[in-house]
Every structure is written in C-alpha cells, then in structure tokens.
From TrEMBL:
<dbReference type="InterPro" id="IPR000846">
    <property type="entry name" value="DapB_N"/>
</dbReference>
<keyword id="KW-0560">Oxidoreductase</keyword>
<comment type="function">
    <text>Catalyzes the conversion of 4-hydroxy-tetrahydrodipicolinate (HTPA) to tetrahydrodipicolinate.</text>
</comment>
<dbReference type="GO" id="GO:0008839">
    <property type="term" value="F:4-hydroxy-tetrahydrodipicolinate reductase"/>
</dbReference>
<feature type="domain" description="Dihydrodipicolinate reductase C-terminal">
    <location>
        <begin position="130"/>
        <end position="274"/>
    </location>
</feature>
<keyword id="KW-0457">Lysine biosynthesis</keyword>
<feature type="binding site">
    <location>
        <begin position="123"/>
        <end position="126"/>
    </location>
    <ligand>
        <name>NAD(+)</name>
    </ligand>
</feature>
<dbReference type="GO" id="GO:0050661">
    <property type="term" value="F:NADP binding"/>
</dbReference>
<comment type="similarity">
    <text>Belongs to the DapB family.</text>
</comment>
<feature type="binding site">
    <location>
        <position position="160"/>
    </location>
    <ligand>
        <name>(S)-2,3,4,5-tetrahydrodipicolinate</name>
    </ligand>
</feature>
<dbReference type="InterPro" id="IPR023940">
    <property type="entry name" value="DHDPR_bac"/>
</dbReference>
<dbReference type="Pfam" id="PF01113">
    <property type="entry name" value="DapB_N"/>
</dbReference>
<keyword id="KW-0520">NAD</keyword>
<comment type="subunit">
    <text>Homotetramer.</text>
</comment>
<feature type="active site" description="Proton donor/acceptor">
    <location>
        <position position="159"/>
    </location>
</feature>
<dbReference type="GO" id="GO:0016726">
    <property type="term" value="F:oxidoreductase activity, acting on CH or CH2 groups, NAD or NADP as acceptor"/>
</dbReference>
<keyword id="KW-0028">Amino-acid biosynthesis</keyword>
Length: 281
C-alpha cells in the first residue's frame, strides 16, 4: 500500500467505473482503490466497489463523499457530474484523468482553466488502438488530400444502446484531426447524418453516422471513398478493458511521468501518455 497510487474513481458504479476498479485492484503493485464516488441516489451506494465490480471487496464503498487521502482521480461519469469532480480536484490539488464525453464548450474551457493548477489527461478514448488509428487517419488524409477526383471521408460509429451522447466523443475527435489534415479552404463542414434532398456531396465535408445497437462497447470506421476504390479504417473494442487500462496508464503517467517524477500542471491527452504527441501527421 505504501508505494501504491491512492486512486479515487468518479462514476465508480457505472459500466466503466466498475472496470477501472477491477483492473486497478488487479494491479495491486501500482494502485490502491481508496475512493469510489457515485451519485448519492445510486442504488449501490454503501456497497463495496469491488463487490459491485464483481471482484473481491476492495475496502472502499460506493459513496457520494470523497475520501480525504487521494493521490489521483479517474473520472468516467456524465457531463452533468463533471463540474463537481473538477472543482474537487482543483480544491485538493489532485491530478485528474477525464474520460467522460459529451462535454459542453464551457466545460471544456473549465478543464483548460483547471489545468493551469493541476495536471489533467483528457481524451475521448483511452484506447491504444483508437489513438493509433487516429494517427493513421491523419496520415491517410494527408496522403489522399490531393488525389485526382477527390476523397470523401465519412465516420461511422457503433455503440451500445445505453450510450447517452451522439456522435461519440471519439468520432468527433477523429473528425477534428482529419479536418486539420484536410486543411481545406473553404473550411471543413461537419455533417451529421443525411436526410431528404441533400444535393450532391461536397468535397470539404466530413459525415458522421451514429449507430446504437445492443451491447457494442465501441467501434469506429473511417471511410475514405475515392472514385474507383476506397479505404476503410476500422477499430473496434471487444470489451471495455482497453479504455480502463488506458485510463490507469494515464494515471500512472501523471503520477510518475517517464522518469518517475509527477507531471506538472497542464492539459494532456492520450497522445502524450502514449508517446505519440510528435508522431508524423
Ligand atoms: N474516454 C474513454 O475511453 C471512454 C469514455 N467513456 C465515457 O465515459 C462516460 C461513462 O460511461 P459509462 O460508464 O458507460 O456510463 P454509465 O452511465 O454506466 O456510468 C456513469 C456513472 O456516473 C455516475 N454518476 C452520475 N452522476 C454522478 C455524480 N453527480 N457524481 C458521481 N457519479 C455520478 C452514474 O450513477 C453512473 O454510475 C460516458 O461519457 C462515456 O462516453 C466510456 C468509455 C470509454
Ligand atoms: O460510451 C461509451 O461506451 C464510449 N464512449 C466514448 C466515446 O464517446 O467516444 C469512448 C468509447 O467509444 C466508448
């Protein structure tokens, strides 16, 4: 316990929170779960977070109250819950990993403000495969930007029926990065679904299509359509552990950096954590 990172999970009773608790408990050399925060009205309040996650008890109960001695917070909650979490971390100088998607522009600005005093990793996908695919999508876009006849780029995402936001934060991030690589004038248009008499597709748009089916833990397909051929870049999770493991890697990176020292205040992302911040775009 003495050398482990004391971790509080915000949204601990949720689908993702449970997997973070379970993987952190499995990695007992690095982590001790000391806090399992969730909404005061959650039916699991009072139960041990390990039991809720389907593992042995971890000696931290699901609770709306924050414990006093925390090294770092991982958040997988809801946009309506994030402001309180950020305020708590700033007030207690706790480093923070934010994975919640669907944040408003003002919430994104609050994160940037908070990052002036605490280190924050914020990313719509903590998955290694997704972040690698984002770099690949940027490279494919740059390579095809001036192809004869043009390239049409569309982003399809599939998620479980319980997902609250659409399109996914990951799809929007793919679109943002691809838009930068398109470097278009006039600026790129982000088109969400199509219906009715839309007219012909323009060259400077990116289309988004959100599919909600069953228990899909997350899948993104980037279609690069040309005249005569196409590329489809597909990245799919088999379960939620890719995201939970990524969030724990981000927490370790914030606490220990690459050289064992804690990261200074700042707003970081998974490219930073994975050493891909300067990867060729
Ligand atoms: N960045 C990434 O890699 C990933 C991000 N996500 C995002 O994480 C978020 C959570 O996803 P899920 O676990 O599937 O959702 P979920 O709905 O299963 O879990 C959310 C949890 O937050 C809790 N919560 C609500 N209000 C709260 C409050 N005021 N204080 C504390 N907890 C509160 C809920 O009771 C629930 O237990 C979503 O925004 C999702 O898009 C999900 C997977 C991967
Ligand atoms: O809600 C989810 O499940 C997921 N949400 C994230 C997003 O919106 O991009 C990441 C992942 O795709 C799973």
């Amino acid at each position: 316990m003495s050398n482990t990172i004391k971790l509080a999970v915000h949204g601990a009773a949720g689908r993702m929170g449970q997997r973070v608790v379970a993987l952190a408990a499995e990695d007992g050399e690095n982590f001790t779960v000391v806090g399992a925060i969730d909404h005061a009205h959650h039916p699991k309040v009072g139960q041990d977070a390990g039991t809720v996650a389907g593992i042995a008890p971890v000696d931290a109960s699901i609770s709306p109250d924050w414990p006093s001695d925390v090294d770092i917070v991982i958040d997988f909650s809801l946009p309506e819950a994030i402001d309180g979490c950020v305020a708590h971390c700033v007030a207690h100088a706790s480093p923070l990993v934010v994975a919640t998607t669907g944040l408003s522009e003002s919430q994104k600005q609050s994160l940037a403000n908070a990052a002036q005093s605490i280190p924050i990793v914020w990313a719509p996908s903590m998955s290694l495969a997704v972040n690698l695919s984002m770099r690949m999508a940027q490279q494919i876009t740059s390579a095809l930007r001036d192809v004869a006849g043009g390239v049409d780029i569309e982003i399809l995402e599939r998620h479980h029926r319980f997902k609250a936001d659409a399109p996914s934060g990951t799809a929007l991030k793919f679109g943002e990065l691809i838009g930068e690589a398109m470097d278009e004038a006039p600026p790129v248009m982000h088109v969400h679904g199509r219906e009715g008499h839309t007219g012909q597709r323009t060259r400077n748009e990116i289309g988004y299509h959100a599919i909600r089916v069953g228990d899909n833990p997350g899948e993104h397909t980037i279609v690069f359509g040309m005249l005569g051929e196409r590329i489809e870049l597909n990245v799919a999770a088999s379960n939620r552990d890719c995201y939970a493991a990524g969030a724990l890697a981000a927490a370790k990176w914030l606490m220990r950096g690459q050289d064992g020292k804690p990261m200074p205040a700042g707003l970081y992302n998974m490219f930073d954590v994975l050493g891909m911040a300067d990867a060729a775009k």
